[in-house]
Amino acid sequence: MARNRQRRAGGAGGGRETVAEPVGGGLARLTPDPDRADGWELSLDGAPQSHVDLAEPTRLAFAYQRRLGHLADLAAPPWQPVNALHLGGGGLTLARYIAVTRPRSTQQVAEPDERLTALVRRALPLPHGARVRVRAADAREMLGRVPDGWADLIISDVFDGTRTPAHCTSAEFLDEARRVLRPGGWYAANLTDGPPLAHLRGQVATALSRFAAAGLAADPAVLRGRRFGNGILCARDAALPADELTRRFARDPHAARLLTGRELADFTAGAPVVTDTTAVASPLPPAGTFG
Prior knowledge:
Elements: E1 19-23, E2 26-32, E3 39-44, E4 47-53, H1 63-73, E5 83-87, H2 93-101, E6 106-110, H3 114-123, E7 132-135, H4 139-145, E8 151-156, H5 171-180, E9 181-193, H6 198-210, E10 213-218, H7 220-223, E11 229-236, H8 242-251, E12 257-260, H9 261-267
Helix pairs in contact: 1-2, 5-6
């Protein structure tokens, strides 16, 4: 789920009406993208959640979605099907992307808000042939149900309103993710934070304590603690293709900087590993973040 509006497109659209409907998490709005005839932005209580382009599911409009898309691209050789587990559903943007870029992939989604899922399925149908199963379950509860070694890729995009819940930020949560991943599989998480970056530092320290390699991609201004924004954490028990990721993130319309190795360890600034007993939800965005 996106937190800050880093997107832009081209094209034309118009003549469509905003769809507003109460769901479990508040008031959901599907707003037509004025620049794309088949583009829609999903928001909950005014906070942007995701963007979907029905005509072009591989077009990832939000910056954080593009960064997660790069990780999905590198999770296996091109076009090879994968088993993907999405913790957090929203508009199912990344599930659509994987369904098109990796046909025959098997995907499971944990989205506790059944009314939101019903709205998305009705108004934003999935691509033909997409093998996506959405379960009305809490992310951590769902993680506990998945067999050992099932997933090639786990994408954690878990938000309760505008905050990641505490129980999805701990070392114990990551232990479950590692159990579900196949050897060499990828864990990726969309995180949000602002100065003094205590949440991001703690999440990085926790990932480094559980995985052999990790990386953090974000806008340089976010990494310097100058503003609130998204950070994409990736981790696996194998080497990261850091050079390729760096090139991909740098080419994006909203370029991101990737921290790995010593730079990433230094970024933690000695932050302790987060456990179930110490975990707290991610910070609230500052007033005015969404508009």
